[in-house]
Amino acid sequence: xxxxxxxxxxxxxxxxxxxxxxxxxxxxxxxxxxxxxxxxxxxxxxxxxxxxxxxxxxxxxxxxxxxxxxxxxxxxxxxxxxxxxxxxxxxxxxxxxxxxxxxxxxxxxxxxxxxxxxxxxxxxxxxxxxxxxxxxxxxxxxxxxxxxxxxxxxxxxxxxxxxxxxxxxxxxxxxxxxxxxxxxxxxxxxxxxxxxxxxxxxxxxxxxxxxxxxxxxxxxxxxxxxxxxxxxxxxxxxxxxxxxxxxxxxxxxxxxxxxxxxxxxxxxxxxxxxxxxxxxxxxxxxxxxxxxxxxxxxxxxxxxxxxxxxxxxxxxxxxxxxxxxxxxxxxxxxxxxxxxxxxxxxxxxxxxxxxxxxxxxxxxxxxxxxxxxxxxxxxxxxxxxx
Length: 386
Description:
Elements: H1 12-31, H2 38-45, H3 57-60, H4 69-89, H5 96-112, H6 141-146, H7 183-194, H8 201-218, H9 223-234, H10 243-260, H11 284-297, H12 309-313, H13 317-333, H14 339-354, H15 371-385
Helix pairs in contact: 1-13, 1-14, 1-15, 4-5, 4-15, 7-8, 8-9, 8-14, 10-11, 11-13, 11-14, 13-14
InterPro entries: ADP-ribosylglycohydrolase (IPR050792), Ribosyl_crysJ1 (IPR005502), Ribosyl_crysJ1_sf (IPR036705)
Protein name: ADP-ribosylglycohydrolase
Keywords: Hydrolase
């Protein structure tokens, strides 16, 4: 397992926008094939699968493709934390977990048109002013049912106690985006955010582990070091629901590909076929493991099939970031599972790591339908946290 060198350290605003737009890109691309098998994806897009947005007919026709509920919920969690930070900046105290719950209720209102009976009515904020945020994009059942109660889910009394769908981990990146937040606080916020809708241990430990990875990446650590830090924390959790085993399997599989097939010719990294042992990503720990595998196994490549060392040395470092991103998304979305969630998570990891150099022109891709909302969310976050 190897990891391409990062360019000169990205700025904080670049990491914020890179994370949000990288996640949105992976989400939108994966959303186009989310409910297709790998055989169906290859039948439609060729043996290499979905490798470029221009393969999507709407984009070829000059249109855009939308993000799914994954990016919608991520933005609402981000805005909940932003609400808490704005209160703090004004010298007032607020409960960050309550702010996230109220923001998730705002999301619930965009999806259903109403709030749960007896639930507090949060004031409207800027996200809800965008019609795109009111369109239902296949929201998870547990996310909807968990937020349909008047009561806020708590660690000792979670909503949907047996649910461990990926609806927690796919919205947990914002917990790692708060500058200077201690690991214990990242974990606490991720856990309290997860139990709003999902109560199984794997749901919250996957969310917390991903938040810790994002926190490390935002601080300039490597991908390898960030994954290792999350695993070290998972090893301290008595009942993690299998999250540590899933992530450790992803790391081992990525390492075996790098060691045994340095040219990527094993039929997985080069063709877009994920190892079956990682699952399909419908549950939290599998979605996290797939994203980690996709990012790690493509880390030393500047193409889905790695160049020889002499050729790779001629490729500009910034360009490698964009190629690493493309290669990782290729793996993360080409499978018969939850492609938008795994694509989003992989995109967020690399966006936090490389910043906006994941895109050749360092701009939010024009083919993402909600690109202006993503850019505005990043702008507001940076303004409040810088």
